[in-house]
């Protein structure tokens, strides 16, 4: 029997291919400290699922990495560069290397799908209208939308189509990292499963690194290579689903072995504590 080792930032000795490295991060609002010295590594080419109780700061961490929320202390390195020392121009270059899918999809309601996808391209690249149309068509195809979705407005789309359109927009600049904030929330289980499959396929075909905030156990089982769990401002554990299942941390036990989790796990997926799949 092997007892899986759960590291606090998922970084094993000798593994250093972290595309994002967060160290001793402190973030707060007024008197409330949300991140209390958090360490986390996101490794190149993985889908890292980020879980934790509501209101613990999963979105805050994402927004802090993206530079949308200021940190009080600690370091954030992206592609090996400390984001604190970046010039405005360098920061802009960095921002082109990631795509973000916020929780509500956040498409501009007054723009068609095509125009939404072209927004980041118009902002960062100088392309002819013909190329803009061609690239938007490619992204629409990439996320599994029909070509006629291009000229539709968000109000004419189903929830699943909105997620796909927003995903297409987050892929507009051919990013290396994708940040997804609860991408399957609001989708029915079949739609959510299809979206997870799409993200896994895109990760493989485009070589993406994906950071996915999620409450969706199905996504953790089927799409994520590793999982990091947040609790009380720190990472309480990071590892594979098998390692999470084997943990005896109270929150992880109730999350991964609770009623909802039991309904989900098939005998092939359920792993008794203390065992890891070979
Ligand atoms: N701009 C802000 N100003 C003040 N407090 C904030 C701000 N943004 C987030 N918070 C607080 O930080 C805490 C963490 O919020 P966050 O949205 O990151 O939680 P979460 O873990 O993503 O929750 P959920 O799973 O419900 O989406 C919450 O208490 C929230 O109210």
UniProtKB/TrEMBL annotation:
Stated family: Belongs to the ABC transporter superfamily.
An example Gene Ontology molecular-function term: ATP binding
Name assigned to this protein: Ribonucleotide transport ATP-binding protein mkl
UniProt source species: Methylorubrum aminovorans
PANTHER family: PROTEIN TRIGALACTOSYLDIACYLGLYCEROL 3, CHLOROPLASTIC (PTHR43023:SF3)
Keywords, comma-separated and alphabetical: ATP-binding, Nucleotide-binding, Transport
Matches recorded under InterPro entries: AAA+_ATPase, ABC_transporter-like_ATP-bd, ABC_transporter-like_CS, P-loop_NTPase
Domain ABC transporter, residue spans: 20-257
Superkingdom as given in the UniProt entry: Bacteria
């Amino acid at each position: 029997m092997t007892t899986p080792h759960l590291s606090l930032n998922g970084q094993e000795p000798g593994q250093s291919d972290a595309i994002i490295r967060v160290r001793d991060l402190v973030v707060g609002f007024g008197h409330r400290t949300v991140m209390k010295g958090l360490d986390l590594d996101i490794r190149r080419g993985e889908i890292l699922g980020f879980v934790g109780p509501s209101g613990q700061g999963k979105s805050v961490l994402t927004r802090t990495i993206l530079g949308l929320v200021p940190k009080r202390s600690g370091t954030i390195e992206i592609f090996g560069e400390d984001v604190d020392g970046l010039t405005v121009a360098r920061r802009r270059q960095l921002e082109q290397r990631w795509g973000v899918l916020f929780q509500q999809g956040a498409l501009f309601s007054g723009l068609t799908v095509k125009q939404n996808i072209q927004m980041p391209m118009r902002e960062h690249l100088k392309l002819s209208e013909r190329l803009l149309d061609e690239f938007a068509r490619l992204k629409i195809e990439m996320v599994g939308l029909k070509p006629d979705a291009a000229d539709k407005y968000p109000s004419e789309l189903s929830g699943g189509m909105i997620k796909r359109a927003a995903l297409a927009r987050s892929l507009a600049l051919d990013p290396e990292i994708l940040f997804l904030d609860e991408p399957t929330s609001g989708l029915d289980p079949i739609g959510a499963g299809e979206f997870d499959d799409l993200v896994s396929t895109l990760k493989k075909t485009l070589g993406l690194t994906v950071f996915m905030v999620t409450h969706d156990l199905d996504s953790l089982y089927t799409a994520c290579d590793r999982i990091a769990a947040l609790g009380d401002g720190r990472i309480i554990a990071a590892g594979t689903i098998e390692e999470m299942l084997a943990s005896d941390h109270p929150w992880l036990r109730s999350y991964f072995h609770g009623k909802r989790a039991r309904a989900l796990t098939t005998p092939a997926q359920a792993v008794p504590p203390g065992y890891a799949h070979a």
